């Protein structure tokens, strides 16, 4: 199977006020197969979000290169096929759920009739068809996360990037969102790359888990999680894989 995302020898420095530079990433190599789920795990400050931002094209690497669907990211033209879910839902409070979901299509210049149809389909896909006209303050935290997910899905991406989007949800709602993401990814044939500090979340969702060592961030190990879905976060199998990941991170 071909790689949907490949980072090759990616390094990054950030300038400091004293004129020095902070070495954030060093020679990072990762490869994520099409239609698979990959987690990037590591301690705070190890460069997880920076790496995700480089993959998303939000910041350039100082060395190395990223390939998306086999194309160098600097030459990649199908940016609508890649979407990003941030830690916060970032819903616009003056727009309804449907209007928030439609935002990306509006920016892309999609016709109004197409926007209306695709927004309705996507809200139905995430179980929010009855809440299209609700405003963010009228929705629960889990429902807001579903709106954010729908906004990411409405452009029908082939690659979904997620930066700890469920970290603020309580455990039961987070588990529901895990199931929802995997269900939708299977239906749409998406590739998912996400960062998390929660090793149980990584084991529950991912086919592969990349652990990063900090300062500068570099790949420590890539773990294959070959457990069948759905995965119970309280099961002995998940607990054992999570224990092994923690041990890897601490070594």
From TrEMBL:
Instruction: Report the residue ranges that make up the ABC transporter domain in this protein.
Output: 5-239
The name this protein goes by in its record: Sulfonate ABC transporter ATP-binding protein
Q: Which domain of life is it from?
A: Bacteria
Supply the alphabetized keyword list.
Answer: ATP-binding, Nucleotide-binding, Transport
What are the GO MF terms of this UniProt record?
A: ATP binding; ATP hydrolysis activity
Pfam families per UniProt: ABC_tran
The record's listing under SMART domains reads: AAA
Keyword Acetylation attributed: no
Give start-end ranges for the coiled-coil region(s). Answer: none
Q: What is the native source organism of this protein?
A: Methylopila jiangsuensis
User: Which region is the signal sequence?
Assistant: none
For this chain, the family text in UniProt reads: Belongs to the ABC transporter superfamily.
């Amino acid at each position: 199977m071909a790689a949907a995302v490949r980072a090759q020898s990616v390094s990054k420095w950030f300038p400091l006020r004293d004129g020095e530079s902070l070495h954030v990433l060093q020679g990072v190599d990762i490869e994520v197969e099409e239609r698979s789920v990959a987690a990037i795990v590591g301690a705070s400050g190890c460069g997880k979000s920076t790496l995700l931002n480089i993959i998303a094209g939000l910041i350039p690497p100082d060395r190395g290169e990223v390939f998306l669907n086999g194309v160098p990211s600097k030459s990649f033209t199908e940016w609508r096929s890649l979407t990003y879910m941030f830690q916060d839902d970032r819903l616009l409070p003056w727009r309804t759920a449907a209007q928030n979901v439609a935002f990306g299509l509006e920016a892309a210049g999609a016709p109004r009739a197409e926007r209306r149809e695709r927004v309705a389909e996507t809200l139905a896909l995430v179980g929010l068809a009855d809440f299209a006209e609700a405003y963010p303050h009228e929705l629960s935290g889990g429902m807001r996360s579903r709106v954010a997910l729908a906004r990411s899905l409405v452009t029908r991406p082939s690659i979904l990037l997620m930066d700890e989007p469920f970290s603020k949800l309580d455990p039961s709602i987070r588990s529901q969102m895990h199931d929802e993401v995997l269900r939708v990814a299977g239906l749409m044939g998406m590739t998912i790359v996400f960062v998390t500090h929660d090793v149980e979340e990584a084991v529950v969702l991912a086919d592969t888990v990349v652990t990063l060592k900090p300062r500068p961030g570099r790949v420590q190990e890539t773990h294959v999680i070959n457990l069948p879905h759905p995965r119970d976060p309280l099961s002995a199998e998940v607990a054992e894989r999570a224990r092994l990941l923690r041990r890897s991170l601490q070594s």
